[in-house]
Amino acid sequence: MIKHLRSAADLDAETATLILDTAAEMAALSGREVKKLPALRGRTVVNLFYEDSTRTRISFEAAAKRLSADVINFSAKGSSVSKGESLKDTALTLQAMGADAVVIRHSASGAPHRLANWVEGSVVNAGDGTHEHPTQALLDAYTMRSRLGRLDGLRVSIVGDVLHSRVARSNVLLLSTLGAQVTLVGPPTLIPLDVAAALSPSTKVSYDLDSVIPDSDVVMMLRVQTERMQDSYFPSAREYSRRYGLDLPRMRNMPEHAIVMHPGPMNRGMEIAPEVADSPRSTIVEQVANGVSVRMAVLYLLLGGK
Amino acid sequence: MAQPRADAPSKIILAGSDLSRVVDRIAHQILEKTSGATGTVLLGIPTRGVPLAHRLAARIHAFEGVEVPVGSLDITLYRDDLRLKATRALGRTELPPGGIDGLRVILVDDVLFSGRSVRAALDALKDLGRPSSVQLAVLVDRGHRQLPIRADYVGKNIPTALSESVKVAVTEIDDTDEVRLIGGLQ
């Protein structure tokens, strides 16, 4: 088993499948009366969050607690970081406290890679800048597999702000490893062509959402990350929504079995219409529930053994 | 514990129909000891305890027409040696629809050795419900217990040396029915 999960590229098909299979067994636990397993008793997991997060942090915390690990939550606000402490000094502090795993979210791409050199425990990337978010890709793959029964040969369209999306990068890497065919869709200003090719040569690119929709098994909408946008990438929110938003008429053009995904948080009315987000085809709430099972699987596989 | 080498000499202890007869006998003993196997659930411990539990249920049904619910109980996350070995893949835990509360649970495993798997299974059961009582059925008891645990139903007692290992094969998984003693022989 690998020691760190810094990038979806750390996972080969065999390891990724093992994580998804383990997650399926973990999911069966959520129906039990005692939702707690002793597997990580006495281990310490630190959630090191330099960026705001709701679902990822809560999800990692729930996952670690269900495996009986001790959880220490650290957020940059209200800590010595606001006094100017560097990532390295914070890491050394965590090391001294005996953290067996550090789950890190950071606004700087590559922070988890640096951290892995400074601490002895496992490092799990919970989102770094515009780089990667591997556990999100794993839970997306898990959701696709449980809804559609397979990943191999699945046609997945990832739509919207690919440029700023760590979710998109991790998904392209993981889904390609698992045999899915990924198409990136969005305005030319928000699709980094070089990145698309570098991540996986089989990735396709399209600027026309309507032509892609009838041939998609999965349509994954990305949030338009206005907080990371320094320039104007499209003329207006209304125009973006018209050309790249998923509304009801577009959803009706999807194949009957196809599903709609969104990593959250959503801009309802911008990239996704409220009626689409709340439709039975949408897996958005399911994705959150699956997130806990997938993160339990990751923590168990990274920390459970020798 | 030292494992015998793959090319070590081996001896078949039970084969084919012998193994079926042993399963038949355990099924009869369960019926006898539980007054007709009412209020009883069989839980197999993966991997090979699960098909054995299903076979016992089928034999009990054939003998007395009683339907005994069957499930599986994975103990991986409850093992006390998790940290001593590489990470293990998980097996399946599946309780019968009626659950286990207030019922007699019979755990089914292939080989009883140190007793540590059974201890893990008892811990796992505690998180799943409260059976009225718990019993243990094993195909082979090879001795060398490290915990105060004994089986209620034993298919065959095989005296072994610690340097030997006992391998159970069942048709459902291994395409053949046999119990083999490996290593330690002249």
From TrEMBL, chain A:
Q: Which domain of life is it from?
A: Bacteria
Residues the entry annotates as binding L-aspartate: K83, R166, R223
Q: Name one GO molecular function term.
A: amino acid binding
Q: What InterPro entries does the record point to?
A: Asp/Orn_carbamoyltranf_P-bd (IPR006132), Asp/Orn_carbamoylTrfase (IPR006130), Asp/Orn_carbamoylTrfase_sf (IPR036901), Asp_carbamoyltransf (IPR002082), Asp_carbamoyltransf_Asp/Orn-bd (IPR006131)
Alphabetized, the UniProt keywords read: Pyrimidine biosynthesis, Transferase
Q: Which PROSITE patterns match?
A: CARBAMOYLTRANSFERASE (PS00097)
Q: In which pathway does it act?
A: Pyrimidine metabolism; UMP biosynthesis via de novo pathway; (S)-dihydroorotate from bicarbonate: step 2/3
EC number(s) stated in the UniProt entry for this protein:
2.1.3.2
Give the GO biological process terms. Answer: 'de novo' pyrimidine nucleobase biosynthetic process; 'de novo' UMP biosynthetic process; amino acid metabolic process
Pfam families according to UniProt: OTCace, OTCace_N
Q: Where does carbamoyl phosphate bind?
A: R55, T56, R105, H133, Q136, G264, P265
**UniProt catalytic activity:** carbamoyl phosphate + L-aspartate = N-carbamoyl-L-aspartate + phosphate + H(+)
Domain Aspartate/ornithine carbamoyltransferase Asp/Orn-binding residue range list: 152-302
Q: Name one GO cellular component term.
A: cytosol
Ranges for domain Aspartate/ornithine carbamoyltransferase carbamoyl-P binding come to 3-145
Q: What does this protein do?
A: Catalyzes the condensation of carbamoyl phosphate and aspartate to form carbamoyl aspartate and inorganic phosphate, the committed step in the de novo pyrimidine nucleotide biosynthesis pathway.
- Family note: Belongs to the aspartate/ornithine carbamoyltransferase superfamily. ATCase family.
Q: Describe the protein's quaternary organization and the partners it interacts with.
A: Heterododecamer (2C3:3R2) of six catalytic PyrB chains organized as two trimers (C3), and six regulatory PyrI chains organized as three dimers (R2).
What is the designated name of this protein? Aspartate carbamoyltransferase
TrEMBL record, chain B:
* Stored InterPro entries: PRTase-like (IPR029057), PRTase_dom (IPR000836), PyrR (IPR023050), PyrR_bifunctional (IPR050137)
Please list the residue ranges annotated as the Phosphoribosyltransferase domain: 13-159
- Motif PRPP-binding extends across 105-117
Q: Which GO terms describe its molecular function?
A: uracil phosphoribosyltransferase activity
Give start-end of the signal peptide.
none
Q: What is a biological process (GO) this protein takes part in?
A: regulation of DNA-templated transcription
**What's the top EC group for this one?**
transferase
What is the primary gene name for this protein? pyrR
What the entry lists under PANTHER family is as follows: BIFUNCTIONAL PROTEIN PYRR
The answer, when asked if Transcription is one of the entry's keywords, is yes
Reactions mediated catalytically: UMP + diphosphate = 5-phospho-alpha-D-ribose 1-diphosphate + uracil
Give the EC number. 2.4.2.9
| Pfam families per UniProt | Pribosyltran (PF00156)
Protein name per its UniProtKB record: Bifunctional protein PyrR
